[in-house]
UniProtKB/TrEMBL annotation:
Organism encoding this protein: Catellatospora coxensis
Protein name, as recorded: Uncharacterized protein
Entry keyword set: Membrane, Transmembrane, Transmembrane helix
Superkingdom per UniProt: Bacteria
Lineage, highest ranks first: Bacteria, Bacillati, Actinomycetota, Actinomycetes, Micromonosporales
Segments traversing the membrane: 51-79
Length: 198
C-alpha cells in the first residue's frame, strides 16, 4: 500500500472507530424497531408465550388475575424490545476496498475496522432465528479483545453472559453482527467483491 491510512484516516491495522462511515460502497443500515423485533422473536416464542400460557392456566378461575399476569408478561417483552432497540447503532457494518467496518454484536460498542489482509474468513450463519455475518480474523487475539470489549464496563447479568458465550461458541467467532433488513447471501457477495478488489 502506498500510504498508511485510507481516505477515512483509518490505519491499515485493526482499529476502533466511533461509528461506521456513511459513504462506504457496502453499507448495512438497520431500523431500530425492526432490529429489536427480529432479535427478540425467538425469546417471544420460547419464553414469553409459554410463560403466558402457563400463567393463564394457573389463573384460569380469575379473569382479573389472568389479565394482570398477561399484562406483566407483555410489558416484560416490550421492555426487552426497547432495551435491544436502545443498544443498536446504525449502520451495523460497512466495507470498501480497504477493509471492513463492523459493530460486533450490533451494539453500542465502537466499530471495529479490519483491513482485508486481517480478515481470514467471511460467512453468514443463522443463530436463534437471526442471520449473522461472522468474521474470522487472522489474529485469534482480536477475537478475545472483542469479547472483552463486549462485556467490559457494563452490567452483564448471568443469563446474558451465558447467552452471549453460547452464541460465540455456536458461531465460532466473537466478531458477528445481526443482518437485519438485508439479504444475507447478497450482502456476502457484495463484501467479497470489495475484498477481492484489493
Amino acid at each position: 500500500m502506498s500510504s498508511s491510512t485510507d481516505r477515512h484516516g483509518t490505519l491499515h491495522t485493526p482499529s476502533l472507530h466511533g461509528r461506521v462511515p456513511d459513504d462506504l460502497p457496502v453499507l448495512l443500515r438497520s431500523n431500530r424497531l425492526a432490529y429489536a423485533l427480529q432479535v427478540t422473536r425467538r425469546r417471544l416464542l420460547t419464553v414469553h408465550l409459554p410463560v403466558a400460557a402457563v400463567l393463564c392456566l394457573i389463573a384460569i378461575r380469575s379473569w382479573l388475575v389472568t389479565v394482570v399476569l398477561l399484562a406483566m408478561v407483555g410489558l416484560h417483552y416490550v421492555v426487552t424490545c426497547l432495551d435491544e432497540a436502545a443498544k443498536v447503532r446504525s449502520p451495523l457494518l460497512g466495507a470498501d476496498d480497504h477493509g471492513l467496518f463492523l459493530r460486533p454484536n450490533g451494539v453500542l460498542q465502537p466499530a471495529l475496522h479490519l483491513p482485508w489482509p486481517h480478515v481470514k474468513k467471511l460467512a453468514v450463519q443463522r443463530d436463534s432465528g437471526v442471520w449473522m455475518l461472522c468474521v474470522t480474523p487472522r489474529d485469534p487475539g482480536e477475537d478475545k479483545r472483542a469479547q472483552e470489549r463486549e462485556t467490559a464496563g457494563r452490567f452483564y447479568g448471568f443469563w446474558r453472559i451465558l447467552r452471549y458465550q453460547r452464541t460465540v461458541r455456536r458461531l465460532g467467532t466473537s466478531l458477528f453482527t445481526p443482518i437485519v433488513g438485508a439479504d444475507p447471501d447478497r450482502l456476502l457477495v457484495d463484501l467479497n467483491a470489495q475484498r477481492g478488489a484489493r
